[in-house]
Amino acid sequence: MLLTWLEAIPGIVIGNFAQVLVYPLNPVQRLYWLYLVSSLVMAVLAWLLYRRREGREGFLSFCFPREVWGHPSAWLDVRYFFVHQTLRVWIYGALVVSISLGTAGLLEAPLRWLLPGADAGLAPPSPAQRAILTLVSVALVDLAQFATHMLQHRVPLLWEFHRVHHSPPVLHPLSNYREHPVDNLSYALANGTVVGITTAGVAGLMGCELRTVDVVGVNLFHFAFNFLGYNLRHSHIWLAWPSWLGYVLGSPAYHQIHHSTDPRHLNRNFAFIFPIWDRLFDSLYLPREPERLTFGLGDGSEADYDAVLKLYWLPFARIARGAHRAPIAAETSAPSGYAGDDGSPAGP
Question: What is the dihedral of CA 53, 55, 60, 62, to 10 degrees?
Answer without folding.
Answer: -50
